[in-house]
Amino acid sequence: MKIPRIALAAVAALALVGAAQAQQFFRIGTGGTAGTYYPVGGMIANAVSQPGKIVVTAQAANGSVANVTGIAGGAIESGFSQADVAAWAYTGKGVYEGKGNVPGLRLIANLYPESVHLVVRKGSGIKSVADLKGKRVALDEPGSGTLVDARIILAAYGLKDADLKPEYIKPNQAGDKMKDGALDAFFFVGGAPAGAIAELASAGTGIELVSIDGPQADAIRKTDTFFAADLIPEGTYKGVGATRTLAVGAQWVTSDKADANTVYEITKALYSDAAQKMLASGHAKGKLITKDNAVKGAGIPFHPGAERFYKEAGLIK
Q1: Same domain flag for 21 and 170
Q2: Are 150 and 196 within one domain?
Q3: Which helix or strand (DSSP H or E) is residue 257 part of?
Q4: pLDDT > 90 in the chain, percent
């Protein structure tokens, strides 16, 4: 029996619809292209995508706060956030005090430590956070975790935005302005080495990193337990010695509305042998995205899909 063409067309259309429904799309909000979130997000997206089943993509964004906002509003399925920002969003504390919380925020994985960089021009004479008073300082854009942390650190030294000549621009723009002599310092919170800072260290007169250490750093860690003592090793940036600073965890977060099976498959893929090799060879911080670090510093509940994998792997009970 000959099947009419219209019937064949209908069958083909239904097959296409079925394929489209079967394929899940999962976006990761990252950070600016000059930071660490963006390249790491691209690597993770490539490592966990399963063509025809789950397509994961990374997109540039303004960072932690903006990503949490995007997840809460349904604009993106997931994003990267500093551990402190994620916990504040979930509990309605810190920068979210009085602004409402995001009770549906869920954790997929803790990824790697993010170091606080305070970058200054070589020979600037700025040796301490206290020396930033009256200086031209970039604090990153609104919506970034860097801006949140910069203000916490400034406050520990008795400073606020009004005590500086502040600029609210991304690290790559800050680097360009510093090269031109139009900026004295900038903050950046991210995995070391960061591309924009490495480029700046190798160009022109070079840079220095200011230590964030001593009693002020101890006070910050006591008040906000998401900060940890950190060391940026000598040689991480050209001509820059070992620098004691603070760090927070970089986390991959999502919504409780995200499909549990999709999140399970993505989490499982992230820690597969193939993905682990890709991450370890693709970026300095990729070596730290391991099962051992996955459940550390969880300040918010795990997504059920991720929790299922970690229980199977024996990482949580």
Answers
A1: no
A2: yes
A3: none
A4: 74
User: Does the pLDDT at position 10 exceed 70?
Assistant: no
Q: How far is CA 313 from CA 292, 308, 310, in A?
A: 11, 9, 5
Provide the pLDDT for residue 13: 40
Residue after which a domain boundary falls, among 229, 248, 267: 248
Question: Residue 129's domain spans which residues?
Answer: 115-248
- Is residue 90 within 8 Å of residue 299, measured between CB atoms? yes
Same domain, 138 and 81: no
Rounded to 10°, the helix 214-223/145-156 angle is 120
CB atoms within 10 A of CB 128: 14
**Which positions ≥6 away from 102 have C-beta within 8 Å?**
68, 71, 72, 89, 90, 96
Tell me the C-alpha distance between 160 and 247, whole Å.
21
Q: What is the mean pLDDT of the chain?
A: 90
Amino acid identity, position 110: N
Closest CA to 113 of 292, 315, 316: 292
The answer on 293 and 180 residing in a single domain is no
Tokens for 76, please give them. 């993106």
Q: What is the pLDDT of residues 207-263, one digit of tens each?
A: 999 999 999 999 998 888 788 889 999 999 999 999 999 999 999 999 999 999 999
In eight-state DSSP terms, residue 287 is G
Say which CATH number the domain at 285 has. 3.40.190.10
Is the pTM above the cut of 0.70? Answer: yes
Q: How far apart are CA 172 and CA 159, in angstroms?
A: 24
Out of 222, 248, 274, a domain closes at 248
